[in-house]
TrEMBL record:
Protein name: Putative archaetidylserine decarboxylase proenzyme
Function statement: Catalyzes the formation of archaetidylethanolamine (PtdEtn) from archaetidylserine (PtdSer).
Keyword Transmembrane helix among record annotations: yes
Post-translational modification as stated in the protein's UniProt record: Is synthesized initially as an inactive proenzyme. Formation of the active enzyme involves a self-maturation process in which the active site pyruvoyl group is generated from an internal serine residue via an autocatalytic post-translational modification. Two non-identical subunits are generated from the proenzyme in this reaction, and the pyruvate is formed at the N-terminus of the alpha chain, which is derived from the carboxyl end of the proenzyme.
Gene behind this protein: psd
PANTHER family associated with the record: ARCHAETIDYLSERINE DECARBOXYLASE PROENZYME-RELATED
Cofactor: pyruvate
EC number: 4.1.1.-
Subunit structure: Heterodimer of a large membrane-associated beta subunit and a small pyruvoyl-containing alpha subunit.
Species of origin: Methanothermobacter marburgensis (strain ATCC BAA-927 / DSM 2133 / JCM 14651 / NBRC 100331 / OCM 82 / Marburg) (Methanobacterium thermoautotrophicum)
């Protein structure tokens, strides 16, 4: 399965790529077919087996191949630039960052079921997605309200990734594991969780969007400020 519209474009490009082959320009045709295969690899969108257990939180992004991995897990507060949009009343949160390589699936999925209560897109630069990206790079925030508290997903563009796409709007209800957007050609996705969560993965773990259980809620919402 591929991102919507990619299969149709690929079919057209394959038809075009056969023309130089028929005219004897085999090298040109091979190059075109290679580029088409490269594009289809980037824009694949496989179905996922979404776990159904209660109170769990799944990975919003793939980090399964090459350098793609969960590369940071830590507690954050006012030092995280978008924290006030996710938790207007303040407090600490848990940050799980996933670095997506150009060869990972680029579609992002909802980590929890709930109502999208806030989205914010910020234009910016396209630096390598590891340094000062939250203040300089293009980024997109999606806040999902659940019975346990708010959960934030931050899509961050990088040096190669030049476009962030959001599939959902404020007011939409999303199911855990459903598609909420994509970052073309990889980059980084931050998952911001309330304090009432137990993290179930470690730094360096591989993740599969919509399938890997990264955390679970352990306390009722009333136990924390939100």
């Amino acid at each position: 399965m591929f991102v919507k519209g990619v299969a149709k474009r690929a079919s057209f490009l394959i038809s075009v790529a056969t023309i130089p082959f028929l005219l004897g320009y085999h090298a040109v045709s091979i190059l075109m077919f290679s580029l088409i295969a490269f594009m289809m690899q980037f824009f694949r969108d496989p179905e996922r087996n979404i776990p159904s257990e209660d109170n769990i939180i799944v990975a919003p992004a793939d980090g399964r191949r090459l350098s793609g991995k969960i590369d940071r897990i830590k507690r954050v507060g006012s030092d995280y630039p978008l924290i006030d949009r996710i938790f207007p009343n303040g407090g600490e949160a848990i940050l799980i960052s996933t670095f997506m390589s150009p060869f990972d699936v680029h579609v992002n999925r909802a980590p929890v079921s709930g109502r999208v209560i806030y989205t914010e897109h910020t234009d910016g630069k396209f630096r390598v997605a590891r340094s000062r990206v939250l203040t300089e790079n293009e980024r997109n925030l999606i806040v999902i309200e659940t019975e346990h508290g708010n959960v934030g997903v931050v899509q961050i563009a990088g040096f190669i990734a030049r476009r962030i796409v959001q599939y959902v709007n404020e007011g939409d209800y999303v199911e855990r594991g459903s598609r909420i957007g994509m970052i073309r050609f990889g980059s980084r996705v931050d998952l911001i969780l309330p304090e009432n969560c137990e993290v179930l993965v470690k730094t360096g773990s591989r993740s599969v969007a919509g399938e890997t259980v990264v955390a679970r809620f352990v306390k009722p919402k009333s136990d924390r400020k939100n």
